[in-house]
Design brief:
Helices cover 36% and strands 9% of the residues. The protein is built from 6 helices and 6 strands. The strands form 3 sheets. Strands 1-2 form a two-stranded antiparallel sheet. The chain has a two-stranded antiparallel ribbon with strand order 3-4. The longest helix is centred in the middle third of the chain and has 22 residues. It starts with 6 loop residues before the first strand and ends in a 9-residue tail after the last helix.
Length: 190
């Protein structure tokens, strides 16, 4: 319906898992964006500092209403039984969350409200779960053993394609903040 471009991929051997990429620009930790995307960010779109957010490949452009509609359309197509997203709480002074994490949580909430109303007339509630981002670094470790190994393998597969994260498992653990995030996972209270 929205006429926007997305990319859908499947991890090898897992056809039932679909990764959907909307190609939105990285808004930077601060929400101020980067020069390469003319300072665009999801946070700026949410706060009405910009009217449209162009994708990094310039194939699509979203107003806030368009973006909420596109995400709501994906909810309608896939009919999730649980929706998991980032926390809408920015964190605290010592550990502030990435602006994109908080903004994605907010956009997901908006799309969820439309989805619940349009599809279920607010009579059925699909669980919407929020998870804490960078502020988990201050909380006790709570992911261990087999769960930690699985999480580490998934993350290590990802970092091969993101040179900004780290170059390998060995580089991630001792020399970056990722060693604080992998052994932790906390639901956020909204």
């Amino acid at each position: 319906k929205t006429g926007q471009f997305i990319t859908i991929s499947h991890p090898k051997g897992l056809q039932r898992v679909q990764l959907i990429f909307m190609h939105l620009p990285d808004g930077n930790v601060s929400g101020k964006g980067f020069a390469s995307t003319r300072g665009a960010s999801l946070e700026k779109l949410l706060n009405n500092n910009i009217n449209r957010l162009n994708t990094v490949d310039d194939q699509s452009s979203y107003t806030l209403s368009d973006l909420v509609g596109a995400l709501g359309e994906l909810f309608e197509i896939y009919r999730p039984t649980t929706i998991r997203t980032q926390s809408t709480i920015p964190g605290e002074r010592r550990v502030h969350d990435h602006s994109d994490h908080v903004s994605v949580g907010r956009v997901t909430q908006l799309a969820y409200a439309v989805f619940e109303k349009n599809i279920y007339q607010n009579e059925v509630t699909i669980p919407l779960e929020h998870y804490t981002g960078y502020p988990i670094a201050l909380l006790p470790e709570n992911v261990f053993s087999n769960d930690l190994s699985k999480k580490d393998r998934a993350f290590t597969s990802y970092v091969e394609f993101d040179p900004a994260a780290c170059s390998s498992h060995l580089a991630c653990w001792p020399q970056s903040n990722y060693n604080k995030y992998l052994p932790r996972q906390y639901p956020a209270s909204q």
